[in-house]
Amino acid sequence: ASGGGSASGGGSGGGSVLDAGVLCQSVSCTSSAVCVEQNDAGVCLPRYGQLAWTSPDAGATTSAAPVTFTAQLTAVRTPSYPPTLDFSYAPLLGDGGLQLDAGVAAQLSYVAASAGLYTAGQALPLDGTYRAFLAYPDAGLDAGQLVFSVDRTPPQLAVVFQTFTRTAGQVDPGAVGAYKRDEVVRALVLGSADVSPSSVSLTQPLRDGGALAAAALGQLACADAGLACVDGGYCGCFQLDLAASPLDAFRGSLAPALSGQDLAGNRADAGVAPLSVTRLRFTASLPGTTSAVRGSIALGPDGVLYVPHTEGVTSLSPQGSVKWSLGNDAGAFAVAFGDNDAGTQLVFAVRGYNPSALAAITTAGSLSAECAGLTDVSFPSASSLAPTVTSSGGTRLVASTVIRNYRGYFNYLSGSPNIAANAVVTLASNPLACSDNAVGSDGVLTSASAKVTRSARDSADQPATSVALGTQFLYPTAADELTSYTGNGVAYTDEDNGWPVATTAGTLGALAAYPVSGGQRLIGGTGTNLVAVSSNHAVAFKPLVAANGAAVGSDLSIYFGVSDATFGLRKRDQNGLGEQQLNTGTPVRGTPALGRGGLVYAVGDNGVLVVAQAATLAPLWSSPALAAGPMPGSPTLDCARSSTGTPLAGRPGVLHFASGRTITSVVVDSAGVDTAAAWPKYQHDPFNSGALDLALSRFACP
What we know:
The protein is 1% helix and 43% strand. It has one helix and 56 strands. An eight-stranded mixed sheet has the order 4-6-10-9-8-11-12-5, with no helix packed on it. Strands 37, 38, 39, 40 and 41 form a five-stranded antiparallel sheet that branches. The protein is elongated and about 135 Å long.
C-alpha cells in the first residue's frame, strides 16, 4: 500500500522536498524522503525507519465491534506524514489460506495529535481468524502480516445446585424439593473452554437491592456434595448462604444471578431458575397411635426437645428424630428442664392423674426420682412446674420443683437444702427427695372448696402457670385469686402476708413477671381480662379484653394473645394502656414468643404461625396452617444447632410448637429468644423454668 499526499509532522510538505542548503536546491525527493547534504552533494534519505502494527496484538482474540486497527510509522528524519496508509485484511480458511472473496481493502488515517500513529475502525461481521497486511511502498516499509481472531459469541455458562436427601418429615408438602431457609448450598458452575475463570460470578440478592457474591470453593468441595466436573470446559465451585437473602414469607424463591466473560471479553448473563425455599424445618410425630400433645415443649441446653403428651414424655433431637419416650398409662401434662453447676440435668414432669406423680427424668430417658401416688391432685398442667434456681454457698442448684394438689399441699422434689460453700451437688451425694408439706395452719387451705388448684383455667386449652421469684412461689387459684408462698428449701408453710389477691375477673392463666418501681408485677389473662397484680398485694390494672398468656419485652411492653378471631395478637404498655392489634384471623390462646431482632411470634388456633415487628405489630409474614388446632401449648425459640447440639454462630433460629401428634419446627430470622426481654415467652425461658432469676443470657445464641 502506498501513502498518498503528506501530512505535516514537523517538516515541510509537498511532493518534492528541498532541505535547507545550496546542494539540495536542485534535488527532488519523494514525500517519504528528505534531501540532506552529504559529501558535497544533496542526497535523498528516508524520513521513516519503521512501520509496525500496534493493535490488535498478534495472535490476540478480540470481541470489539468495530475492530480497531492501529499502526505506528516511526520517523528518523524530519517527518512529513502521509494522511492515510492503505491496508487490507481477509478471513483465513480452515487450511490456513485466505478467503480472498471476503477480503477488504481499507485505509488507516493519520492521527494528528499523535506523531506517526494511524488508526481505523472496521466492522468485521464474522467471527473467526483474520490476516491483515500493511506496507508503505514509497518508503520501502512493510509491517508484515498480522494474524488475529474475532470472537463476539458469549461463553456458555450453566449452574447445578446441590440436592439434599430428606426424610418424610423434612419435606414441605407445599414445596416438595424446596431448600431450607437456613441451608448453605453448593453450586457447580460449568462453562465453555474459553471462560475466563476470574470473571465468573454467582450472586444472590440482598434486602437493600444489592447482591452478595457466592463464596468460591475448591472443586473437591463440590465433589463432596455429589457435583462432579466434566472434561473439556470451565468448572468452578461456589457456595450460597440462603439465609443471607430476604424471605418475607413462609415459602418463596431465591433468584441467583450467574455471569462471566470469555477470554475475548464477551459477557454472558446466564439465566438461572429461581430456587424454591421453605421455612419448614421438620415435622415429627409422637410415638403410638393415639398420643396427643398436652402442653408446651421444654428445651434442654443442647436444644433437645421434651414433649408432654397423653402417653408420657418424648424427647427429640434438634433435627427432629425421636431419642426416647418414657410412657405411663395417664401420660404427662407438663415438662420443665433444670440443671446445676455440677452438670446434673433433669427433666421434670407431671405424670398421670389421680393418682399423679411428680417425676425427675434423666436426659437419657430413665426415671431418676418420683413422688408417686399423689391422690386428689389438681388437673396437672404445664403451669404446675416451677423449678427454682437458687444460690447456696456459691453453688447453683435446682432447689425445688413443685406441684400443688387439690387439698392445698405442695408436693415437690428437692435437692439437699444444706449445701456447704462451693460444694459439688450431685444426685449421688444429694439424692432428690419427695415431700408433702402443708401450706397453712389456719384450716382454710384444707377445705375442699378453697384454694383448690383445679379450675376452669386448668381444664382449658391454655392452663394456669406458676412463677418462681427466688424462693417465693406464686400461682393462681380456682377462687379467682393469685397467692404466694415462700419456702426455705425444706417446706412451704404459711401463705405469705397480704396474699392471696382477688382478681375479681376470673382465674388467671399463664403468668409472666416484670419489674416495676418497688417490686414486681405478675400478669396474665383470665379469658375476659388482662390482669396485673403487684407485689404489694394489689391489682394494678385489669382492662376488659379476652386475654390469654403474656410475654413482656425489654421496654416492659406486654404482648398477649386473645380469644378473638380477628385481632388475636395484641400489645399494651407496662401499665396496660395504648393497645395495638394484629389481625391473625384466629384466636391466639398460647403465649407469644419474643425473638432476637425485635420480632414477635404467635401460633393461632388454626395452626398458622404469625410473625410481626415487636415494636409496631406490623406483620412480616405468616405460614399456612401447619397443625390442627386448638393449640395446647405455646411456641418456643432456639438457636440453630449442629447434629451434636452445638449452637451455630451467625445462623437463623428455629421455632418449635406442638399440636395433636405433631411437633413442628420452623426456621425463623430470630436467633433464639430476646434475652433483653423481661419475660420473653411462656414460662420465661426455653427450659420452661418459670423462674425470673434464671439469667436469660444463658440462652443467647452466638
